[in-house]
TrEMBL record:
Organism, as annotated: Vreelandella alkaliphila
Biological pathway: Purine metabolism; IMP biosynthesis via de novo pathway; N(2)-formyl-N(1)-(5-phospho-D-ribosyl)glycinamide from N(1)-(5-phospho-D-ribosyl)glycinamide (10-formyl THF route): step 1/1
Lineage of the species this protein comes from: Bacteria, Pseudomonadati, Pseudomonadota, Gammaproteobacteria, Oceanospirillales
Binding site for N(1)-(5-phospho-beta-D-ribosyl)glycinamide: G36, S37, N38
Residue positions binding (6R)-10-formyltetrahydrofolate: R89, M114, R115, I116, L117, N131
Described function: Catalyzes the transfer of a formyl group from 10-formyltetrahydrofolate to 5-phospho-ribosyl-glycinamide (GAR), producing 5-phospho-ribosyl-N-formylglycinamide (FGAR) and tetrahydrofolate.
Enzyme active site: H133
Name of this chain's protein: Phosphoribosylglycinamide formyltransferase
Entry superkingdom: Bacteria
Encoding gene, per UniProt annotation: purN
């Protein structure tokens, strides 16, 4: 072996050693207000090594939120930070920023966090906050999305993962899952079917972000360096239903 070969093989060995080092786990803080079924989907994905990181803390503004129990059961730090104990939205968000920063997250996930965030909060973590919303954004920003979709008789409903900006439910959309609405659907059935789709797509979007594939820009989200369309990537009703083992409805 020439000395050049020797050097290059040493170099390669060193490189291999470096790549063999386990990467530091990416850190996720999840904010909730309620049941935390989306949190549970993220916990389950982490267990199966499909999240791309570790949930290091769960914070709830509602001290009785069931999601806090889910966190404890999964040995995740659970923090109750009741908003009612603060005089203003700004004071609360200031406290929230402090608790979050103590955990040094790479990503903050809003999983049913039912509070409007101040511009200060949004600017502090811009590009590092993902939210799940129960509609095909930009349709039905805000509350009561299922009732509004039914009242308008839409054929397609669903859910969206998006980056959080100062506009409520208005940041760049990353990923959506469609749901075909049938004549039998009620607010309850829509809620159930949309929830199932949320549990499917939220962990995927989190993993993409933590792998560095998904990024925020002021205009849009990008995936592998390519700008995504305004509705992000979309899982069709048929594909979602198949993933979820749903019976495809005849009149859908
Ligand atoms: C979900 O429907 C989500 O889209 C909305 O709040 C709900 C939270 O549900 N932002 P859960 O607490 O995760 O069960």
């Amino acid at each position: 072996m020439s000395s050049t070969d020797h050097n290059s093989s040493t170099f390669n060995d060193t490189l291999n050693d470096m790549t063999a080092e386990p990467a530091t786990a990416r850190r996720i803080v999840v904010l909730i207000s309620g049941s935390g079924s989306n949190l549970q989907a993220l916990i389950d994905a982490q267990r199966h090594d499909r999240l791309g990181g570790e949930i290091v803390a769960v914070i709830s503004n509602e001290p009785d939120a069931y999601g806090l129990k889910r966190a404890l059961e999964a040995n995740i730090e659970a923090v109750a930070l009741p908003h009612r104990e603060y005089d203003s939205r700004d004071a609360y968000d200031g406290a929230l920023i402090k608790v979050i920063e103590r955990h040094e997250p790479d990503l903050i996930v809003l999983a049913g966090f039912m509070r409007i965030l101040t511009p200060r909060f949004v600017q502090r973590f811009l590009g590092r906050v993902l939210n799940i919303h129960p509609s095909l954004l930009p349709a039905y920003q805000g509350l009561n999305t299922h009732a509004r979709a039914l009242a308008e008789g839409v054929a397609l409903h669903g859910c969206s993962v998006h980056f959080v900006t100062e506009e409520l439910d208005g940041g760049p959309v990353v990923l959506q899952a469609e749901l075909s609405v049938t004549s039998e659907d009620t607010v309850e059935t829509l809620k159930e079917k949309v929830h199932a789709r949320e549990h499917l797509i939220f962990p995927i979007a989190v993993q993409w972000f933590l792998e560095g594939r998904l990024k925020y820009t002021a205009e849009n989200a990008t995936m592998d360096g390519h700008p995504l369309p305004p509705h992000g990537m979309r899982l069709s009703h048929a594909d979602a239903a198949e993933e979820l083992d749903e019976t495809l409805d005849e009149d859908a």
